[in-house]
Design brief:
TIM Barrel; globular; 14 helices; disordered N terminus; alpha/beta; Urease, subunit C, domain 1; 8-stranded mixed sheet; 3-stranded parallel sheet
């Protein structure tokens, strides 16, 4: 019988003989932030073989590896790739959102942009088409060269409910009216093997229709029967309490109408619910671009935008139009409430991950993830807490911690090389010198 190359490599590895046919890269002499929450390790080394970490530890204990490609990273910092638990792919071009834009080209463009900013995995939360499952399968069958995608497929709302009235969102979520429709749609999501189920539970400050909590209960119950976790777009404290009591896995936004209270905190601990993403940048973006933004002079921001978008963001007429929003004056308060609630949940020991809601118009993939980390630190979290949330913790929420989120033996080599220490200043995550996904250097 003819032995295939992959089987031959496995045979050699199991026999403990030469691994000359394997692709081996050795990174050495850097400070390691491994994503576990442990203190950093100075003068570290990582051996990467065929995209996975074979060994990690002090450089002084590194054993010679025949045929390896050595990379000296003296003075640099290495951390796991960023995992964004809340984004949206493919539907936005420039500052316009429309499902007609959804294509392989647009999805891959978004994923490559995320990768260039060091976001090595992301969850697309409820706005996808079946194409996403083909892309996901292609990635999981090999070693991806752009950001790994996880997906909720299509999310849920009620008939005519938010966000179907948002420009470019009609026909995107499932609009359900009864338990039979929910069961049919959950069966479809289970067949697609989605990574999470998404529900939008919001009335957009009383202006739109919100899905009933009875329907939400049915969605959560049917999803759990199919062994699927459920995350919800929420705004109101009372909705968060009800959903958590019904078994919700994650709050996909911070509560923004009121301070979180002991009742919610106790319920989240009892049921194992996470603040899966706080999406502070979503709130900040509602007023940041209604004025001359400091970001427009920041090349780290503008490199991800087309010249047309940069010009529009700098246009006083565009900024004035944003300020005409009747709720505009309330938006800074929503951000402040979201930050206070994130800090309270963290202080009380509720598990939290990392996510931004990037992807829709004026919520820019890649840059927003770095801005989110900065806003989390401004909320009172330490850089160490934020980095752990954006790496090891987010992988744990996804159930992917055996493969992603930490730089440990056996995991995929998804990592960033930074020029400066992000534990000293969270903005140092922006000093990216290299990005690796599955051991492939993609930047």
């Amino acid at each position: 019988m003819k032995i295939q190359p992959a089987a031959l490599l496995l045979t050699i590895a199991l026999a403990g003989t030469s691994s000359a046919l394997a692709e081996t890269t050795v990174l050495r002499h850097f400070t390691l932030i491994d994503g576990t929450g442990r203190p950093p390790l100075a003068d570290a080394a990582i051996v990467i073989q065929d995209g996975r970490i074979q060994w990690v530890g002090p450089a002084a204990k590194l054993q010679p590896s025949a045929g390896a490609q050595p990379v000296d990273l003296t003075g640099k910092y290495v951390m796991p790739g960023i995992i964004n638990l809340h984004g949206h792919l493919g539907n936005t071009v420039g500052l316009v959102q429309d499902p007609k834009f959804y294509s392989r080209e647009s999805v891959e463009k978004n994923l490559k942009l995320y990768a260039s900013y060091g976001v090595t995995s992301m969850v697309s939360m409820g706005t996808d088409k079946p194409l996403i499952f083909q892309i996901r399968q292609e990635q999981r069958s090999g070693r991806p060269t752009y950001t790994r995608v996880f997906t909720a497929g299509r999310g849920f709302t009620g008939v005519g409910g938010y966000p179907t009235t948002v420009p470019g969102m009609k026909g995107v979520p499932f609009e359900v009216a009864n338990p039979a429709e929910i069961q049919k749609d959950i069966d479809q999501l289970a067949d697609w093997r989605v990574d999470v189920v998404k529900i939008w539970v919001d009335d957009h400050l009383g202006k739109q229709k919100k899905i009933s909590l009875d329907l939400c209960r049915d969605i959560i119950a049917d999803a759990h029967k199919a062994h699927l976790k459920v995350a919800a777009h929420v705004f109101y404290l009372d909705d968060a309490k009800t959903l958590v009591r019904e078994g919700l896995s994650g709050l996909a936004h911070s509560v923004r109408d009121k301070p979180v209270d002991e009742e919610l905190i106790a319920a989240m601990k009892q049921h194992g619910a996470w603040q899966s993403s706080a999406t502070l940048t979503r709130e900040a973006s509602l007023f940041e671009f209604a004025r001359p933004s400091k970001f427009l002079k920041d090349p780290f921001f503008t490199r991800g935008l087309s010249p047309d978008v940069v010009r529009t963001l700098g246009d006083p007429q565009y900024q004035a139009k944003l300020r005409q929003d009747p709720d505009f004056d309330r938006y800074p308060g929503f951000l402040e409430m979201a930050q206070k609630n994130l800090k309270k949940l963290a202080d009380e020991g509720v598990r939290f991950g990392f996510g931004t809601d990037s992807g829709p118009p004026a919520r820019f993939p890649g840059f927003f993830e770095h801005w989110e980390m900065e806003l989390m630190v401004q909320a009172g979290l330490t850089p160490a807490q934020v980095l752990h949330a954006a790496t090891g913790s987010s992988a744990e929420f996804l159930g992917a911690s055996k493969d992603l989120g930490t730089l440990q033996a056996g995991r995929w080599a998804d990592l960033l090389v930074l020029a400066r220490n992000p534990l000293a200043n969270i903005r140092n995550t922006r000093t990216i010198e290299a990005v690796y996904i599955a051991g492939n250097k993609v930047r």
